Model the fold of this input.
Amino acid sequence: MPAPAKPPPTVDDVANVLRGLINETMSRQDAANWASHWVTESHSNVEDTRVWEALKELVAADLITTDRPYLYGKEDFEAWLEELLASSPSESPSSK
Done:
């Protein structure tokens, strides 16, 4: 019998990961790996588009680039957090 599906992350869960990146208490790799589980899941049960959009951004938290160590920085994480908390709940990403 397969294990029951984990409940999807909440706005608070995602906000805590973003705060961890901003405060440097969570590594970029850990944040990206955590988000990747939800984004790459073929039957993801994430229904809140605010969470879904933030997860898609977090997957890229550890991307490197040629002109600086990482593509995204603290300012980006702060903007993602602000956007997440300022947006209102909306429809499921699977209904788009």
